[in-house]
Design a protein that fits this description.
Chain B: Residues 230-298, 424-450 are annotated as: Disordered. Chain B: Residues 47-220 form the DUF4350 domain. The complex is a heterodimer of chains A (436) and B (450). With 436 residues, chain A is α/β, with parallel strands linked by helices. Chain A has 4 domains: 3-43; 47-160, Immunoglobulin-like, CATH 2.60.40; 193-226, no CATH class; 232-432, 3-Layer(aba) Sandwich (Rossmann fold), CATH 3.40.50. In chain A, 35% of the residues lie in helices and 28% in strands. Chain A has 11 helices and 20 strands. Chain A has helices spanning 3-13, 22-43, 169-180, 211-216, 252-269, 296-303, 315-325, 340-357, 368-375, 381-406, 419-432, and strands at 50-56, 59-61, 66-74, 80-88, 94-96, 104-106, 111-118, 124-136, 143-144, 156-160, 193-199, 221-226, 232-238, 246-247, 250-251, 273-279, 283-290, 331-336, 359-366, 410-415. In chain A, strand 14 (246-247) and strand 15 form a beta hairpin. The longest helix of chain A has 26 residues, at 381-406. Chain B folds into 2 domains: 55-290, no CATH class; 352-430, no CATH class. Chain B has 16 helices and 9 strands. Chain B has a 7-stranded mixed β-sheet with strand order 1-9-2-3-8-7-6, with helices on both faces. A two-stranded antiparallel sheet of chain B has the order 4-5. In chain B, a hairpin with a 4-residue loop joins strand 6 (177-179) and strand 7. The longest helix of chain B has 33 residues, at 2-34. Classes of the chains: A alpha/beta (436), B alpha/beta (450). The interface between A and B is large, with 93 and 71 residues.
């Protein structure tokens, strides 16, 4: 039954003054309208003969637009006049090309393509929820509609992180090439890994003369070094309660993911092996062996659906995982927050074992509110109390940093937008000085 | 801390507004209760002894030897007025039926008609050259000759609460005499009409005040006979002209029935015989309208043609169809779990509020001073164990060493204001005079292990 049936009845009501017996007229007209509705319902294309399929984009970067198309195949013997609603979750930002209130006509045996443009507003998996087909009769008085007919074709659009820090990548890569010594012609680069022997020419570092090799040959030979390759790097993402804190308009986890993506892109280009582990009370994601740049998209896919959980992070679990799975010495980058409560009781007890095997780097995105509280002059007694609380938090953080430094743990603590480049710089510095 | 303050500020505005609203409403309600309505049961009835009744007035008239006759039907009262000089007292003109108001003009000479606070429609229908001109909040007691000589010699000297509704003449000058600062209007003619703007002088509750009783009895006693029209509700329509003409011969024998006083009240008995041709007994005015209507079905049905009702029914059916059409939703709603987020610096603000509520001036000052010393030490590159930071700072900034020492090591502040002053001074002293690209909380140990 549609509004047209009601409109027909209402228009018919205007003829009532002309009827000799008005109440008989009401009964007759109502009966006729109901009969027409029944007829229309019978003539509507049956839903049983419809099948729906989807194709289109499987993933999209946050802020860009993807297109997913529903192919509606009309296998029934009649022409389909239908309104179609393809419902996605609200954060998928679906904008159907054919609005749900427009009637689509599909001849028998034909296929209708119904594209939807999706501009998601959040990272993660955005599923399609329901496809509803309302098959109208030829008069448009009645329709057939039934849940699950045709069955909704499942589809999930994976929304990748925006990865704003990719604009830093060319600059960091060029610095990496300088360290590698492949681009700038200052001879072979610095490093600790033996590369080749070559004949001494004036200007070479005399400390690099390989006396043993020189003794075997007539000329003086010099060793050249290059940065280590095939090092191991483990990125640990803390998805516990501290990662849910909003820094600006993004949770801390998004800043951590951004930094991890830049670091892994850089490290994969530098020839290091990167593993990524995300955990809070349980392990959320574990991606191993992103060695080649081609594998980097796989990592972005795996990190996209991570969401903060309101639980305390189990550093015991993380340390156990790191010690069990990563036997050789690696650089462990802990992307977490410098919160004395969470790290003091969680990380510090397991840190000695971890630091004995691996080199540990703690990277944390700073809360910009703290900076604002401590740097603006107070105007109200409340501001003074806020400043006192902020300074106290910073002092506790300093104490934590000092405690971490005792275990030879490096700390990167910068405001959220600068976390990714700062972490990349730290990585490059460690690589250049051969301390990986 | 801010939420209760906002609430208190809101109270500061809300409480006076609510109080004044309460006062206004109380006044209005009290006034509405205090001012009786002409349609109230027992309003100015000679039988009613309540505050709004007229039993004291009836008794006062009887004391003066005036014959009081209570009438409950307009036509009967008009007929009774023809039998000799009389005063027709209508305390509730609002209840008069519009068709009978015209008949008030037909009163014979030597008759006085007293209307109490008649509405405009009655004035217009009775053809009186008067219009209402301003109404007071409550009746005011005034002297009769306040605005000019009064044409009613019998009320001379009686200061009464008459001035509530004021009147203005609409006809030629001289057609209306106004007394009591226009609260009372006298229209001379064959039958003298008197319009009184307030019911207060006649009511039991007010008749004892001022000279109200004198005024009321004097006004009504001039003819020696008072026909008191006591209507219990809106008067029924008068009978059709043919019946009116046929009734007068039949009624005089059954009609006159004196009710000299209110204590022998048997209102229905006398009237029932007179009014049978027109309508059922008038003892109960509202009841008299009922039985006549109930004989047929609701007249609303016949007021419109049948197709109108059919059209209405069909439109209702159409609305029902719209409801049916809208009831089926187009697919289910789409739920979505939202990601958890925690507001930025939640714990910092929480701690700050704790400090504030506990008035922890001392702790806050200690933290601020320690932070300032730390910042100064970093800015001036002082070793961690510098004995006298204040002296170095004073040398740097040019302030007196004792001032700086007092700032860095002085007494704890006692009030919020002192703490604010301290925080401002510390911030000014510790702030780097040169604008620095690095914000005060420096990125600590970026990269290199300590």
């Amino acid at each position: 039954m549609t509004w047209r049936a009601a409109a027909l009845l209402a228009v018919g009501a205007l003829t009532l003054p002309a009827w000799p017996a008005p109440f008989v007229g009401v009964a007759v007209m109502t009966g006729v309208v109901l009969l027409l509705c029944a007829l229309d319902f019978g003539l509507a294309a049956p839903l049983r003969g419809l099948t729906a399929e989807r194709d289109g984009d499987r993933s999209v970067r946050l802020g860009e637009t993807a297109t997913v198309t529903v192919q509606l195949h009309n296998a029934s013997g009649r022409t389909l006049h239908a309104q179609i609603r393809d419902a996605w979750v609200p954060s998928a930002g679906a904008q159907p090309d054919v609005p749900p209130d427009r009637v689509v006509h599909v001849p028998a045996g034909d296929v209708a393509a119904l594209p939807s443009r999706l501009t998601p507003t959040r990272r993660g998996d955005r599923p399609a929820v329901a496809l509803t087909v309302r098959s109208l009769g030829p008069l448009g008085l009645a329709f057939r509609q039934r849940t699950g007919r045709p069955p909704t074709p499942p589809w999930t659009l994976r929304v990748l992180p925006r990865f704003d820090s990719r604009r830093h990548l060319p600059e960091k890569l060029s610095r990496l090439r300088v360290i590698d010594g492949t681009q700038v012609g200052q001879g072979r680069g610095a490093g600790t890994e033996f590369d080749t022997l070559h004949e001494y020419v004036p200007g070479d570092d005399v400390r690099s003369i390989d006396w043993r090799a020189s003794a075997r040959r007539a000329e003086v030979l010099v060793r050249t070094w290059r940065p280590e390759r095939d090092r191991r790097l483990v990125c640990v993402l803390d998805t516990g309660r501290t990662s849910a804190v909003l820094l600006g308009d993004e949770p801390r986890l998004d800043a951590s993911i951004d930094a991890a993506l830049l670091l892994t892109a850089l490290a994969a280009r530098a020839g290091d092996r990167v593993d990524v582990l995300a955990a809070d009370a349980v392990s959320r994601a574990s991606i191993g062996g992103a060695e080649r740049p081609a594998q980097w998209p796989r990592l972005a896919h795996a990190l996209a659906p991570l969401q903060p959980a309101l639980v305390e992070t189990d550093f015991q679990l993380i340390a156990g995982e790191l010690l069990r799975r990563h036997r050789p010495r690696s650089l462990v980058v802990l992307l977490t927050s410098l919160e004395p409560g969470a790290l003091g009781s969680g990380l510090l007890p397991v840190l000695p074992r971890l630091a004995a095997r691996h080199r540990v780097l703690v990277a944390a995105a700073q809360d910009p509110v703290l900076t604002a509280l401590t740097s603006t002059p107070p105007r109200h007694p409340r501001d003074a109390y806020n400043a006192a609380a902020a300074w106290r938090t910073l002092a506790e953080r300093d104490r934590l940093t000092a405690a971490l430094a005792r275990y030879d743990v490096a700390v990167v603590d910068v405001p959220a937008p600068r976390l990714a480049p700062a972490l990349a710089d730290t990585y490059l510095r460690l690589k250049a000085t051969g301390r990986l | 801390m801010s939420a209760p303050r906002v609430r208190r500020r809101r109270h500061r505005i809300l409480i006076p507004v609510l109080l004044s609203a309460l006062v206004v409403i109380t006044t209005l309600v009290t006034h509405a209760i205090d001012q009786p309505n002409q349609t109230d049961a027992g309003f100015l009835s000679p039988l009613s002894t309540g505050d709004d009744g007229g039993s004291r007035l009836a008794a006062g008239l009887a004391e003066r030897g005036v014959q009081v006759r209570r009438e409950t039907d307009t036509l009967a009262a008009l007929r009774a007025a023809r039998s000799g000089p009389a005063t027709l007292f209508v305390p509730a003109p609002q209840l008069l039926h519009p068709q009978t108001v015209d008949d008030l003009n037909l009163l014979p000479g030597h008759t006085r008609l007293v209307l109490v606070d008649p509405p405009r429609r009655v004035l217009d229908a009775a053809g009186m050259p008067l219009r209402p001109a301003g109404r007071r909040w409550a009746a005011r007691a005034v002297a009769p000759h306040l605005t000019g000589p009064c044409a009613l010699p019998e009320v001379t000297g009686a200061t009464a609460a008459v001035a509530r509704q004021r009147y203005a003449p609409t006809g030629p000058p001289g057609s209306v005499d106004l007394c009591y600062s226009a609260g009372l209007a006298r229209l001379p003619g064959a039958a003298e009409n008197v319009v009184v703007g307030a019911s207060d002088p006649f009511r039991n509750g007010r008749i004892g005040e001022w000279d109200n009783e004198l005024f009321a009895t004097a006004l009504l006693a001039t003819t020696g006979r008072v026909l008191w029209l006591d209507l219990d509700g809106p008067a029924p329509p008068p009978p059709t002209p043919s019946t009116v003409r046929t009734t007068p011969p039949s009624e005089p024998d059954g009609g006159p029935y004196d009710e000299p006083d209110d204590d022998q009240g048997d209102p229905g008995a006398g009237d029932s015989t007179e009014t049978t041709p027109a309508a059922p007994p008038g003892g109960n005015a509202s009841g008299s309208g009922g039985p006549g209507r109930e004989q047929t079905s609701n007249p609303l049905w016949s007021a419109f043609p049948p197709w109108f009702w059919a059209l209405l029914a069909q439109l209702v059916l159409a609305a029902l169809l719209i409801a049916v059409a809208r009831a089926r939703r187009f697919g289910p709603p789409t739920p979505e779990p939202l990601p958890v987020t925690v507001p930025a610096a939640e714990t910092v603000f929480g701690r700050a509020r704790l400090y504030h509520q506990a008035k922890a001036h001392q702790s806050a000052a200690e933290v601020l001073r320690a932070a300032a010393k730390d910042r100064l030490g970093r800015r001036l590159h002082l070793p961690a164990d510098t004995p006298d930071v204040a002296a170095v700072v004073a040398a740097e900034t040019g302030e007196h060493p004792d001032t700086v020492r007092d700032l860095l090591h002085g007494d704890a502040p006692d009030t919020d204001q002192e703490l604010l002053e301290l925080a401002k001074d510390l911030d000014r002293t510790a702030r780097d005079p040169r604008p620095s690209p690095v914000r005060p909380p420096l990125p600590r140990s970026e990269g290199d292990p300590r």
